[in-house]
Write a structure and sequence with these properties.
The chain is mainly β. The chain contains 1 helix and 35 strands. Helix content is 1%, strand content 49%.
Length: 474
């Protein structure tokens, strides 16, 4: 959408309370060194450095899985339809969470963004809630300086359509910078990933109305200034997943479901946004809500997954040059996220119908070997609708997963997928993968430069009370 001038973003704080209810705990493990990997010396060095084609992603130090502390807690947002959409582990061992809540009765608009910071014991330190006359949906978060966060969002302003919204919060929850990226169509950001130089890569979509949307990717520096931005005229859908490979290449996954077909677009970009290779997978991925994600494994391969409501999850493993190694289907109901495990494994986060008498889908985590065999699989039934929408590697080698439904579950498992202790919510599953008959080709799409214009923002959240509420499992 086009604005005649800078639009004031006069945000006001409204009551939001993020509460953690401890459901299950295991014994406490020894603390690990929580130092961050050193960033590159400069942005120019990161852009101009010659990639090392043989450098695989680093795996975490070997840890004793039985000694890792594990737990499962719920995050309750006291607002109508409050969702946690993404999270990260902070350098101090705590957590940052972001999401949005529907606030139809507070005069702020339909949906507003929120963020929260938890200490290493999952106790809330602060919760922020910001809103304006329009709607805001925070979709993804990445680490910022000093235990802060940078989030990517969609900002909607009625007839003027939507824009990309990017904001940076410090460790105390104050917004230190925010910017809108604005164009002639409807734009939005769905993914963000940190770069070695301190900047970020942002992914989203550009489109208008109900027409299929085009993927959009941009690189920004630490001050949220745009270095480059690209649009892929293809109608292939929004960029839903971004990650940065060991050689600084950018891995991109986008998806689109229409009334007649479903397609997933996977690509590897160099640090300047040039396509190294691209692949399109076309098949029966489901009737609605098609989701996709992609990551690099520790041995340098790439694993992607895709799926939609009430359909099997499709998983493909590609080598570094984009050549398929295998294609599998898993009996699950929802597909959401994938991360690198140890020894070339890929750990998938999904949702799967709970055992009879089931009420709603359960959180489901599964590890696949480099050959496509299941190494382990774990389910969590909290009595609500749980889907492992985000999976992350913990700083101690653990597996962290978030269910973005209501209420939201935050779960920590050992590197082998086990819960070290007694938790009646955790159970084992017995799914076996099957070979997938999914066509993969090179669609030959070409990026074009995008011209979304930056518009300074003026968001100003405020601290609100955040008490802790304890719940025990039945």
């Amino acid at each position: 959408m086009v604005r005649a001038g800078l639009r004031s973003r006069a945000f006001v704080a409204a009551p939001i309370v993020a509460c953690l209810a401890a459901a299950c705990w295991s014994s406490t493990a020894p603390e690990r060194d929580a130092s961050l990997d050193a960033a590159d010396a400069s942005a120019d060095g990161a852009l101009d450095a010659e990639p090392d084609g043989d450098a695989p992603a680093e795996s975490p130090d070997a840890v004793d899985a039985a000694a890792v502390e594990t737990w499962a807690t719920t995050l309750v947002v006291y607002a109508p339809r409050g969702y946690a959409t993404d999270f990260l582990e902070l350098p101090d061992g705590g957590f940052g969470l972001v999401g949005y809540a529907s606030m139809s009765e507070d005069g702020l608009g339909g949906s507003d963004a929120w963020a929260a910071r938890l200490d290493p014991h999952q106790n809330p330190l602060w919760a922020e809630f910001v809103g304006g006359p329009g709607d805001e949906w925070v979709q993804a978060v990445a680490p910022g300086p000093d235990n802060g966060m940078v989030f990517a969002a969609i900002e909607y302003s009625g007839p003027r359509g939507s824009s990309v919204w990017i904001a940076r919060l410090d460790g105390a929850g104050a917004i230190t910078a925010d910017v809108l990226l604005d164009g002639a169509d409807d734009e939005g950001a769905w993914a963000v990933a940190p770069l070695p130089d301190g900047g970020y890569v942002i992914g989203g979509s550009i489109g208008r109305g109900t027409r299929p949307r085009d993927p959009w990717v941009a690189r920004i520096d630490a001050d949220l200034n745009v270095a480059w931005q690209r649009r892929l005229p293809s109608g292939i859908g929004a960029v839903q997943s971004l990650s940065v490979a060991a050689d600084r290449d950018i891995l991109v996954a986008a998806a689109e479901r229409t009334s007649t077909s479903a397609s997933v677009w996977l690509a590897r970009l160099d640090p300047r946004g040039t396509i190294r290779w691209q692949r399109r997978a076309t098949g029966e991925f489901g009737e609605m809500g098609l989701r996709t994600a992609m990551t690099e494994t520790t041995d340098g391969d790439v694993v992607a997954m895709a799926g939609a409501s009430y359909r099997d999850v499709f998983v493909v493993r590609l080598d570094r040059d984009g050549n398929p190694r295998w294609r599998k289907m898993l009996d699950a109901s929802w597909s959401f996220d994938v991360m690198a495990g140890d020894g070339g494994e890929a750990i998938l986060g999904a949702g799967r119908q709970s055992p009879p008498p089931f009420v709603a889908p359960d959180m489901w985590l599964v590890a696949l070997s480099s050959e496509g065999r299941i190494v382990w699989q774990t389910g969590l039934d909290g009595g609500y609708l749980e889907i492992a929408s985000v999976v992350r590697r913990g700083r101690d080698g653990s597996i962290l997963a978030l269910s973005a439904e209501i209420p939201s579950w935050l779960v920590k498992l050992a590197p082998n997928g086990r819960f070290n202790g007694s938790c009646p919510l955790i159970y084992e599953t017995s799914v076996e993968p099957t070979d997938a008959d999914v066509a993969i080709d090179d669609p030959g799409f070409a990026f074009e430069d995008s011209t979304l214009a930056p518009v300074p923002g003026s968001a100003a959240p405020a601290d609100v009370p955040c008490p802790v509420e304890w719940r025990c499992p039945d």
